Amino acid sequence: MNQRIGYARVSTDDQQLDLQRDALQQAGCGAIYEETASGKNAVRPELRQCQKALRAGDTLVVWRLDRLGRSLPDLVQIVTDLEQHGVQFESLTEKIETGSAAGKLIFHVFAALAEFERGLIRERTQAGLAAARARGRAGGRKPKLDDQQVREIKVLLRDPDIRVAEVARRYGVSRTTLYKHIDIVSPKT
């Protein structure tokens, strides 16, 4: 008996699977594999379990293409593997199903467009970061120690009786952070 099996994924813990779950249930999926994992993460245990559960004649259903693949090559590889095992693929939002030649063609066109869009987003992000740097704004994490704290720590560590670990605890940072910010000649842990 051919099954419709769903796969749903969100990238972060604060995102919800409800929308995808509802759509997959409405599409007739008897089983739905769900996980929270970044699309960039190659290790997706629920996807692996989902693939193991699929049999020839079954259909893997996702809410949207980007929920399945990390990139165009990854998405194409997954769908190709499915096809080699006699499993069809369906994406609800893009209305793509690989059960027909036309569906396969549409899948490849949409996958290419999705990859193109991600490339544009990446380019715009890089351009925005470059523009911000040109205006003197630096991105990234705020430093754990400010200049005043670094000066204070340097004075404290001149005393041979004060240990690096004590200073690190006092300032709420790790010893590694101290070593990065301060040139400590002989580590006193």
From TrEMBL:
UniProt protein name: Resolvase
Pfam families: HTH_7, Resolvase
Entry's Gene Ontology BP terms: DNA integration
Keywords: DNA integration, DNA invertase, DNA recombination, DNA-binding
Alphabetized GO MF terms: DNA binding; DNA strand exchange activity
Entry similarity comment: Belongs to the site-specific recombinase resolvase family.
Active-site residues per Swiss-Prot or TrEMBL entry: 11
SUPFAM superfamilies in alphabetical order: Homeodomain-like (SSF46689), Resolvase-like (SSF53041)
Presence of the UniProt keyword Signal in the record: no
Gene3D superfamilies: Homeodomain-like, Resolvase, N-terminal catalytic domain
All copies of domain Resolvase/invertase-type recombinase catalytic, residue ranges: 3-136
Statement: the UniProt record of this protein carries the keyword Phosphoprotein: no
Taxonomic placement: Bacteria, Pseudomonadati, Pseudomonadota, Alphaproteobacteria, Acetobacterales
